[in-house]
Every structure is written in structure tokens, then in C-alpha cells.
Specification:
single chain; 88 residues; mainly alpha; 4 helices
Length: 88
Amino acid sequence: MGKKISNGMLIRCMVTKFEQGMLIMFLIAYGCAKGVSGPSAFRIAWGVQGIPAFILLGALFFFPESPRWLGSKGRWQDVVRRFKQQRL
């Protein structure tokens, strides 16, 4: 478990990013509904909203392994090293 201050800040940041994402999604859908007519409004909104998902999918290969995954594979020295890097 991490420090309480770290966990609280991480959760607050995550919730804020979810809320920002929902606001951006709403604004894109609203703008497409007002500015574009027909089924293309739906397709444009989904296409624009899918761009960050594809960027995240590409970046997924560069994320480090989590300590929980490393522990499940029996790589305990890597777990200790990861915790030291994260200062937990």
C-alpha cells in the first residue's frame, strides 16, 4: 500500500481526468449534433473521441509493469526496485 497522501492525490487526479473526459465528450457530441446533420454527426463524434484511445493503445507498450503483476510472476527483486522507483 502506498502513502495515504499519495493514494488520495492519485484518486483525485483520476476522478478529475474522468470528469474532464466526459465534458470533452459531451462538447464534441453537442458540436457535431448542432453543426453536422444526419448519421455523419454520430460517426464524426465517435471518430474524434476514439483518437485518444488509439494513442493510449500505442503508449501501452511503453508503460512499466505494475508491482502486482511482477509479484504474481515471482519477480520479487523487480517488485522492490519498482517500489523504490515509485517511492512507496
